Amino acid sequence: MRRVVNDIRNNTLEFLRTFGAFQLFFLRILRYSPAVLFGRFDLVVKQVYNTGALSLVIIMICGLFVGAVLALQAYANMSKFNAEDWTGVAAAFALVKELGPVMTALLFAGRAGTALTSEIGLMKATDQLSAMEMMAVNPVRRVLVPRFLGGVIAMPFLAAVFSAIGMFGAHLVGVELFQVDVGSFWQQIQLTVEMSDVNEGILKSVVFGVAASLIAVWEGYNTVPTAEGVGRATTRTVVITAIAILVFDFMITAALI
């Protein structure tokens, strides 16, 4: 019994230490963010390209089929009530408020987040970060902050692309496949989806971008400098980011209802 209590205590203390270190790390990132954003914006642009532009293909393909599936499900249910014209509204609400930000963040974690973690982890394993410190170059400011800002900036744009392509997929299924009137399809969306719904999606995408990017650079910076350590850090990035996204999604949705 004493051993179980000790294990619980040690695990709790370790969690609190890690959580505290994570908060201090976040404050360090925020401290250097204005200087990097306005002083070395070229580094941020490069990371926006690496994390955002290089993720467009998977975002667009997944968005197209998610929108198509939403339209299929919406049409199957709306047709029971002779409300086929509302197929687009159901797909739009799901994409703009929920699936657009959430799916984009999960895909971002799987593609860009793992790339950030492995890149930073390999830099640590090959002593590149230590070499920067020896040359009086702050690795947090030079390496981590541009990658963090690149992910935060790219995420809302990726979510917007996901939702837009998803609506195109919904249009293909609803209008082209099931012959829903194209005017009614888009008019119902314009009359029903409000700016507050769009703002909710934007807020979620920004929060998810901060969470996903911060977790990725944290795991990379604190990885064990071995090949096995980098692999485990990459796996933790995906798992922790997915959990954080779903938790934040619930909290934001509950707060805005």
Could you walk me through the main structural features you see in this protein, from its secondary elements to its overall organization?
The protein is mostly helical and 257 residues long. The chain has one domain (40-256). 88% of the residues lie in helices and 0% in strands. The protein has nine helices and no strands. The protein has helices at 2-39, 41-51, 56-78, 87-125, 128-134, 139-177, 182-192, 195-221, 227-256. The longest helix is centred in the middle third of the chain and has 39 residues, at 87-125. It is elongated, with a radius of gyration of 21 Å. The mean pLDDT is 91.
What are the main properties of this structure?
single chain, 257 residues, mainly alpha, 9 helices, 88% helix
